[in-house]
Specification:
Layout lengths: L1 E6 L12 H8 L4 E6 L12 E3 L7 E3 L1 H12 L6 E11 L2 H7 L4 E5 L8 H7 L2 E4 L9 H12 L32 E2 L2 E2 L9 H19 L6
Parallel strand pairs: 1-2, 1-6, 5-6, 5-7
Antiparallel strand pairs: 3-4, 8-9
The structure holds 6-chloroguanine.
């Protein structure tokens, strides 16, 4: 898979791809992530990528030209399965959406800043608008990092334990059961005995029961 991300704050996207699972996925050649600095696509002498909003009001709007130039350049090099824009008024991201996107070959992501991008960019180029929750971020970069992380870990071969992603919370509309490691006793608190039993059938049953119990208590909406 290849992910291209367009941003006017490329530094915000350095660290999320430089460590841990996202880094290893790139080293293994399972995903390529390319960050594109929008300021390299402006012809303005001050390298501006935003301008005042027509109609007035607080906040700047990201201009059409640098974004259009950047997207056209990338589209000239390959066909994108989706061109994604991050915005609080987009469709709410969930595991189903990340599963679907993880099957794609080329994803292009556009990060807005300030008051967002000129509406015509959305109408002309964008195929999918995504929000990561009902709160407002200063820009789409953290949302792009969230989406990319959620997608990359689903690519076959990225996680060393191949079954691990299948037992994540949400994969079967259930939250994940509690997990424990050594020591078996801490501050008088003991690990559930069944987990020490070595009986894998019993352990699987316990995990299923706990997952269901936890989901009923915390997220009954997932069971509806
Ligand atoms: Cl995707 N972008 C911004 N700016 N704010 C958000 C968001 C995205 N998702 C939730 N809040």
């Amino acid at each position: 898979m290849r992910i291209d991300i367009i941003t006017c704050v490329p530094k915000l996207l350095e660290s999320p791809f430089a460590h841990s699972i996202t880094q290893r996925a790139q080293e293994k050649g399972l995903v390529e992530v390319h960050i594109h600095d929008l300021r390299e696509y402006t012809e303005d002498k001050h390298r501006a990528v935003d301008d005042y909003a027509f109609g007035g009001g607080a906040g700047m709007v990201m201009m059409i030209e640098p974004i259009a130039r950047c997207i056209e350049a990338l589209k000239g090099e390959r066909k994108y399965d989706e061109i994604i824009y991050f915005t609080p008024d987009g469709a709410r991201l969930d595991q189903k959406m990340t599963n679907t996107l993880s099957l794609q070959k080329n994803l292009l992501m556009l990060c807005g800043h300030y008051k967002g991008v000129d509406e015509r960019i959305r109408e002309y180029f964008i195929t999918k608008e995504i929000s990561i929750g009902d709160y407002v971020l200063s820009g789409g970069e953290l949302a792009a990092a969230v989406l990319s992380d959620a997608i990359i870990r689903l690519i076959p071969g990225v996680l060393s334990d191949e079954t691990s992603a299948l037992t994540d919370s949400f994969q079967d509309n259930l939250l994940a059961p509690p997990v424990y490691t050594r020591p078996a006793e801490w501050q008088g608190m003991e690990v559930p005995e069944v987990l020490l039993s070595g009986n894998h059938k019993k352990i699987d049953e316990w995990r299923e029961t706990e997952a269901l119990k936890r989901t009923k208590e915390r997220r009954p909406d997932l069971l509806e």
